[in-house]
């Protein structure tokens, strides 16, 4: 079942009209719904609107294709996922989530073939890009992004890994989108008169959000660093987590890793990577053919270089040689800086992949893990068992040994709330008692049974008149019979003892004050008394 969520009713009408023109979607049972403006608010709204436990696959409307790294190295490039492959991917990801107790999956967040592998699903901390991801729905507030639209997919990835200690990312697939290249959608949330200004505004917001996220998740993020490229995320994930998982079999993953390692080794042995800085007469490394209209209206083919920010045409006619040279030098310097940045990203991705591959190889080769699995010949079961043990250990460090840590956290929260409430009541009672004692000590004594009626001493030299002894029927809780018998007497006595006064002194004070607890407290505070029976025996 497909649901299309829009920001408002105007957008809803536009989508419905567009769907009616498409033969496939016009005949499909698709629901067009109105949610909330803003990508972060919209995705949080979808989570809250749909039931818990539902498997949801979320796609951006500008996702045009899923690309696949089919061969090791970088010579073959990427190819579109075969027809029918997307549906198989959805079911495969669901089975992996269930098997490894994960709750979210996504693709490789880079379209650079150097940052991809031909096999394996990463379980490590890293970004699950919002253009395509699947998840098992939970209404857990800790999983909902809150910092800002520019980094909401990175924040979601951090929140899921922080809670579950595992996220799934298919290393061989990436999405093809027009993010940063077209107006509308997320770009319209940022200020600017054109796409360039909007992208710059988005980058400023992303930079600010990245610093906030680093403070929120210091163990999962490196300090943020300003990036030159608009499309380069400034949230820097730490490569922490478990080993890579096979998409099919352990043997297939081992073979794919071996092929990638052999290509990397040959690349390193061939010497340093040549500089990509271009001279004025150099040919572009990657070319495409576009149509360009000349002044006379005729069409001609023009070769353009595909750079990180898109296609840049050669200088138009009428531009002076000096201007063209200056522009080329500026663009070459800009590209050189971005090449360094892109190369650094690739190296980080390769290092992370090599680390999780080595962790995988060590587990498979370790006889202890095979023995723990009952000497099983099923390597996939060993991977599942070790991954589950690693996640459980990480969760124990945070949650302790609880079967349901969330329920335990809620129980402790309720208990803490009750303790706080009791503390507030205790403090309020202490203030009330202090006020009463203050009146008693200064000669303003509340009359039993009538809090508003006060007996005030006529002068500072005169002793305040003592209250009449109440009858038991008037105030049964304040009377003490000889010997301390009677329920009311016992209550008053136990109250004084609970305040820290000795039993003997408390009983005597109650007798002397006719069972008035407040006067008894005032009397006990005004004289030196022995608080415990042990001190009485010692001769206090």
Helix content: 40-55%
Hey, roughly how much beta strand do the residues contain?
Answer: 5-15%
Global shape: elongated
Evaluate the radius of gyration.
37 Å
Structural class call reads: alpha+beta
Q: Let me know the largest β-sheet.
A: 7 strands, mixed
Span of the ends, CA to CA: 84 Å
What does this structure look like?
With 540 residues, the chain is of the alpha+beta class. It is 46% helix and 14% strand. It is built from 15 helices and 16 strands. The strands form five sheets. Strands 3, 4, 5, 6, 7, 8 and 9 form a seven-stranded mixed β-sheet that branches. Strand 12 and strand 13 form a beta hairpin. Helix 11 crosses helix 14, helix 12 crosses helix 13 and helix 13 crosses helix 14. The chain is elongated and about 100 Å long. The N and C termini lie far apart (84 Å).
Topology summary:
Elements: E1 2-6, H1 9-21, H2 23-26, E2 30-34, H3 39-49, E3 55-59, E4 65-69, E5 78-80, H4 85-100, E6 104-108, E7 121-122, E8 132-136, H5 152-164, E9 168-176, H6 195-216, E10 221-222, E11 236-237, H7 250-269, E12 287-293, E13 299-307, E14 310-312, H8 321-365, H9 367-372, H10 379-399, H11 405-442, E15 444-447, E16 450-456, H12 487-498, H13 503-512, H14 517-526, H15 533-537
Parallel strand pairs: 1-2, 6-9
Antiparallel strand pairs: 3-8, 4-5, 4-9, 6-8, 7-9, 10-11, 12-13, 13-14, 15-16
What would you say about this model in short?
With 540 residues, this protein is α+β, with helices and mostly antiparallel strands. It is 46% helix and 14% strand.
């Amino acid at each position: 079942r497909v649901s299309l969520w829009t920001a408002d009713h105007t957008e809803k009408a536009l989508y419905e009209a567009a769907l009616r023109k498409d033969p496939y979607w016009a005949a499909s049972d698709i629901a067009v719904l109105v949610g909330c403006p803003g990508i972060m608010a919209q995705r949080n709204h979808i989570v809250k609107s749909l039931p818990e436990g539902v498997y949801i696959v979320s796609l951006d409307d500008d996702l045009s294709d899923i690309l696949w790294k089919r061969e090791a190295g970088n010579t073959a490039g990427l190819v579109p996922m075969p027809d029918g492959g997307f549906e198989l991917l959805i079911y495969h990801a669901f089975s992996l989530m269930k098997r490894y107790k994960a709750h979210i999956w996504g693709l490789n967040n880079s379209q650079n073939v150097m940052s991809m592998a031909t096999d394996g699903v990463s379980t490590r901390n890293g970004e699950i890009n919002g253009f395509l991801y699947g998840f098992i729905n939970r209404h857990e507030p800790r999983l909902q992004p809150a910092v800002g639209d520019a980094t909401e997919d990175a924040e979601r990835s951090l929140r899921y890994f922080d809670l579950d200690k595992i996220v799934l990312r298919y290393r061989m697939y990436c999405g093809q989108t027009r993010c940063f290249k077209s107006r509308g959608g997320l770009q319209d949330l940022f200020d600017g008169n054109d796409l360039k200004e909007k992208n710059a505004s988005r980058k400023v917001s992303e930079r600010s959000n990245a610093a906030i996220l680093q403070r929120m998740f210091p163990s999962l993020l490196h300090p943020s660093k300003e990036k030159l490229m608009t499309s380069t995320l400034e949230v820097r994930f730490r490569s922490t987590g478990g080993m890579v998982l096979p998409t099919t079999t352990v043997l297939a993953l081992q073979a794919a890793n071996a092929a990638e390692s052999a290509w990397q080794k040959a690349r390193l042995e061939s010497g340093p990577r040549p500089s990509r800085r271009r001279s004025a007469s150099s040919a572009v490394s990657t070319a495409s053919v576009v149509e360009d209209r000349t002044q006379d209206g005729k069409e001609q083919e023009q070769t353009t270089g595909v750079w990180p920010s898109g296609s840049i045409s050669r200088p138009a006619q009428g531009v002076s040689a000096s201007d063209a040279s200056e522009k080329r030098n500026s663009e070459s310097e800009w590209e050189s800086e971005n090449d360094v940045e892109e190369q650094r990203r690739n190296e980080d991705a390769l290092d992370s992949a090599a680390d999780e591959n080595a962790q995988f190889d060590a587990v498979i080769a370790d006889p202890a893990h095979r023995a723990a699995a009952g000497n099983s010949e099923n390597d996939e079961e060993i991977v599942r068992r070790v991954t589950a043990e690693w996640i459980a250990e990480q969760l124990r460090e945070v949650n302790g040994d609880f079967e349901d840590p969330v329920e335990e956290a809620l129980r402790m929260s309720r208990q803490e709330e009750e303790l706080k409430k009791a503390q507030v009541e205790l403090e309020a009672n202490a203030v009330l008692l202090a006020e009463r004692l203050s009146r008693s000590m200064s000669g303003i004594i509340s009359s039993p049974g009538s809090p508003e009626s006060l007996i005030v001493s006529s002068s500072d030299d005169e002793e305040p008149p003592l209250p009449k002894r109440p009858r038991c029927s008037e105030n049964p809780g304040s009377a003490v019979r000889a010997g301390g018998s009677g329920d009311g007497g016992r209550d008053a006595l136990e109250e004084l003892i609970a305040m820290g006064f000795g039993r003997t002194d408390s009983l005597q004070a109650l007798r002397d004050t006719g069972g008035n607890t407040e006067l008894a407290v005032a009397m006990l505070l005004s004289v030196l008394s022995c608080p415990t029976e042990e001190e009485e025996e010692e001769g206090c």
